[in-house]
Amino acid sequence: MKRILIVDDIEDNLYYLQALLSGHGYEVEVARHGAEALTIARQAPPDLVVSDLLMPVMDGYTLLRHWKYDKQLRHIPFVVYTATYTEPEDEKLALSLGADGFILKPSEPEYFMARLLEVASGNVRPSSSAPAQPSEDMESLLKTYSETLIRKLEDKMLQLEEANRELQRDIARRQQAEDKLERLAFYDPLTSLPNRRLMEDRLEHSLASSARQGLFGALLFIDLDHFKDLNDSKGHNVGDELLVSVAKQLTGCVREGDTVARFGGDEFVVILESLDGELEQSATRAELVAEKILDEVPSACLREAEDYRGTASIGISMFHGRGVSAEELIRRADTAMYQAKRGGRNTVYFYDPGMQAALEVRLQLERGMRQALQQDEFVLYFQPQVNESGGLVGAEALLRWISPSRGLVSPTEFIPLAENTGLITPIGIWVMRQACTQLKAWEREPATAELELAVNVSPKQFHMPDFVAQVLKVVQQSKINPSRLKLELTEGLIMDDIDSTISKMNALRQAGLRFSIDDFGTGYSSLAYLTRLPLQQLKIDQSFVHNMTLRPENAAIVQTIIGMARNLHMEVIAEGVETEEQYEFLKLQGCVFFQGYYFGKPVPIADFTVKHRGQQQ
Fold first, then answer.
1. From CA 85, how far away is CA 392, in angstroms rounded?
2. What DSSP line would sit under 56-108, residue for residue?
3. Rounded to the nearest 10 degrees, what angle do helices 236-251 and 227-234 cross at?
């Protein structure tokens, strides 16, 4: 016996048997299923064949039947080597079909080789002749073979399915273990926030993102005030509960892409990414987040610590690209935080002295505006709006702040801050009430009963969910003719959420109010949307009016706006008219309403009444 054919569909089994038999000096051929084995054997018959039973294409039982019916191959010993068919009837069936030997996997090498030599030497029942021709016994045998094969296949499938389920359970257990290890490595076990290690990694990513996008970011270092006193008096369990509560509050104060991390003890870090391309605007946004945190921290206090005054001290360091290392940023924010501690706690400090000074000015201005609302320091000034003959048709109400300590504060100074802090909403309602009060006063006088009053509406106020209800409530309470109240909206406001804007405008228009687009031509409004909006007026921005007699392109824009308004059956009013030359040019182009210093500057209502008495159209 020199040449042995091995038939198995599993590579590891082929490798093992090939190595074993080659090591004993035999020449080895391999096949991966019965059909391949028959092809190889008929081309070059081996001295002995070792075959598995359960294989694709052609299984071992079928190979055995073909082998014993083949005159060329039937005399060659056929040994079954299997791990699937292990019951006594399996061996009986294989021998009945003509097998010369039956060996179970796995077997010791010595036993396996001894069994092969036994078969090769003829010390087993002879099987060189073909099995008997089909008979009732053979038919029964083949039926038993088929049933056994099906049963074994089903058993194998069940075993594979169970092995797969166990594998999935093992994978799930491994994944859970890996997740647990990751959380232990990168997350704080108490608050579930990123820990210092993960925070530092995210800060590096933030610095890289800042360098790539050219946008400023900020790092906020937060320390809870008097936290040690709480731990000492109420115990660590209460302190831990407060830390968990503060963590939730901090998470609610930032955007989804920002990072809130526990630095250690009662210290937290917030990373604000992609704030703005300008340092001042970025610092303002960072300061607003810090102020929001200061407002929210007290609400995190627990019943068990009712006597604990929950406040925080916050230090801020700004970053832009990789100009400063992550370690240095943390140190700077920590330094600023201790400045906030020394400054009385419950406050915010920037690391940069210039920014801190600007912050203090903003905070003083914000406190002043809140006081102004309470103490009636805001007033309305009125600028006349006239027709082409110079007759008074109405006015625009403009907000002014007369501070006892600062005097007349410029709107360009306090309006943007009011927008950023949200104070513009209560201020806007105050303006609406005052405007309606003045309209009602005009209605009582025959000479002024037909005047209109235009009021600017801020984007933040307009997009409040209850804006329509607030305006209608003021109109109803003042009992004015709503058609005399004109709301001026900017193009940017309208385009921000066009569907919501149209819905709100339609609701107010149905109540009788009128609308004008302020600063028309400076935004990005689509002409298609203009036809959907319930607009009555377009206001030409003063930047076009100022230079229209000097720059042909400005004159062309003015002519286009006037023509478009006429075609859309809208009124058009030009603002910023300062000279007679501008006034006459606009009239020639078909403009019929005007506003600007040529007709009068914004003044208090008393001055407005005296100056324009008898000027009504």
1. 107
2. SSS-HHHHHHHHHH-TTTTTS-EEEEESS--SHHHHHHHHHTT-SEEEESS--
3. 140
> Pick the residue with more confidence: 410 or 476?
476
Q: What is the C-alpha separation between 500 and 463, in angstroms, rounded?
A: 8
Nearest CA to 253 among 213, 222, 281? 222
Most confident of 20-34, 299-313, 523-537: 20-34
Tens digit of each residue's pLDDT (9 = 90 or more) over 521-563:
665 555 667 788 899 999 998 888 988 877 888 889 899 899 9
Contacts 24+ apart (CB under 8 A), 131-134: 131/65, 131/68, 131/69, 131/97, 131/98
Whole-number Å distance between alpha carbons of 121 and 500: 95
- Find all residues with CB under 8 Å of 218, minimum gap 6, and list them: 271, 272, 275, 282, 283, 285, 286, 289, 316, 317, 318, 319
Tokens of 264: 């250690």
Q: Is 454 within 8 Å of 484 (Cβ atoms)?
A: no
Residue ranges in 188-278 assigned as alpha helix (H): 196-213, 227-234, 236-251
Regarding beta strands 3-7 and 312-319, do their DSSP bridges make them parallel or antiparallel, or are they unpaired? unpaired
CA angle 119, 121, 122 (to 5 degrees): 65
Q: What residues contact 437, with CB distance under 8 A and at least 6 apart?
A: 478
Q: Helix, strand, coil: what percent of the chain each, to 5?
A: 50, 20, 30
Specify the DSSP class assigned to residue 377. -
Asked if residues 98 and 127 have their Cβ atoms less than 8 Å apart, the reply is yes
Q: Does the N-terminal peptide bond of residue 106 adopt cis geometry, omega within 30 degrees of 0? A: yes
Indicate the residue type of 308.
Answer: Y
Handedness of CA 600, 601, 602, 603 (dihedral sign): negative
Tokens encoding 395: 């006015």
Q: Say what the pLDDT of residue 37 is.
A: 93
Interatomic CA distance for residues 448 and 469, integer angstroms: 28
Who contacts 96 (Cβ-Cβ below 8 Å, separation ≥6)? 141
Structure tokens at 528: 């298609």
10 by Cβ neighbours in 10 Å (0-12 / 13-18 / 19+) ranks as middle
Edge-to-edge strand order for the sheet containing 267-276?
Answer: 259-264, 267-276, 216-224, 312-319, 348-350
State how far the Cα of 304 lies from the Cα of 245, in Å rounded to an integer.
Answer: 13
Bridge-based pairing state of the strands 485-490 and 452-456: parallel
Handedness of CA 388, 389, 393, 397 (dihedral sign): positive
| 7 pLDDT higher than 80 | yes
Distance CA 554, CA 125 (A): 112
What separation in angstroms does the CA of 508 have from each of 105, 178, 479, 535, 578? Answer: 87, 58, 15, 11, 33
Give just the sign of the alpha carbon dihedral 221, 224, 225, 231.
negative
